[in-house]
Recover the amino acids of this structure.
């Protein structure tokens, strides 16, 4: 694989890790970057495995917390309730993602213009919600009721439209339904674990006959870049949103959306199929 592909893999891995857990849509950033870089990964191998890097990053950061919850399950009603809330929130995306996988991948993810528009719309919504003066009722993710978790899960499904952002949709939904900003981001982290793992397994299964490891160096560069940067983001995001809110991410979405639209108008078009190959399942 040429040096240019290594550089492209590094850039895309950094973008995946930096944006996966931010409310800015990692899918939009990776797809648009792939559009302009002309990067193509046969069989989705690259996209699937750099996503695994981000999954492992959040599992590592939350390893102690997850272990504590797991050990408490036999004796703690609160621990069992929390696990159930995450599973209930995950259920809508699991069902819709499995049923609509083909349409999402073959239609929605091949429309860069839609991605840019959704970045802008999502940024405006996130900015408006961030400026609203709520009186939060829920401050601890361990205390979220099941009904709230299910509603957040429905909001997450909106992110199947590329450019929306999984974390952005869940955070906006959480804030509108009475959570504070810090716990909204934290619940988004926990919900990302089964959601991203489910997307990874589904993509791996759907493309099992096409998966190739011939470009091992390219995959390794993207995987490591996504893993390291995702760790840094997860470790710092909660403190950041507690003090700064979500407005910076809203403005970033709008800027990237506008730049993307301009780029699509003036940059030579790349193969849409190649771009779609970079997208996760949901």
């Amino acid at each position: 694989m040429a040096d240019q592909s290594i550089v492209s893999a590094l850039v895309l891995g950094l973008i995946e890790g930096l944006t996966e857990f931010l409310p800015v849509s990692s899918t939009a950033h990776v797809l648009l970057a792939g559009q302009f870089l002309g990067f193509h990964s046969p069989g989705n191998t690259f996209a699937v495995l750099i996503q695994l890097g981000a999954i492992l990053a959040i599992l590592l950061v939350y390893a102690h917390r997850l272990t504590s919850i797991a050990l408490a399950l036999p004796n703690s009603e609160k621990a069992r309730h929390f696990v159930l809330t995450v599973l209930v929130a995950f259920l809508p995306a699991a069902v819709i993602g499995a049923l609509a996988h083909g349409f999402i991948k073959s239609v929605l993810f091949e429309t860069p213009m839609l991605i840019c528009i959704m970045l802008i719309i999502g940024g405006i919504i996130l900015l408006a919600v961030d400026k609203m003066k709520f009186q939060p009722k829920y401050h601890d993710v361990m205390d979220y009721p099941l009904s709230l978790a299910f509603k957040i899960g429905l909001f997450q499904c909106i992110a199947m439209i590329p450019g929306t952002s999984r974390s952005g949709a869940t955070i906006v939904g959480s804030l509108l339904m009475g959570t504070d900003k810090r716990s909204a981001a934290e619940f988004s982290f926990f919900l990302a674990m089964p959601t991203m793992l489910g997307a990874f397994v589904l993509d791996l299964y759907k493309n099992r006959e096409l998966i190739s490891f011939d470009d091992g160096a390219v995959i390794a560069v993207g995987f490591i870049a996504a893993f390291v940067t995702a760790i840094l983001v997860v470790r710092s995001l909660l403190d950041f949103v507690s003090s700064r809110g979500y407005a910076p991410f809203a403005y970033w979405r709008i800027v990237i959306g506008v730049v993307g639209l301009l780029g699509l108008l003036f940059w030579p078009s790349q193969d849409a199929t190649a771009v779609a190959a970079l997208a996760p399942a949901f």
Observations:
- Residues 270-282 have pLDDT under 50 and may be disordered.
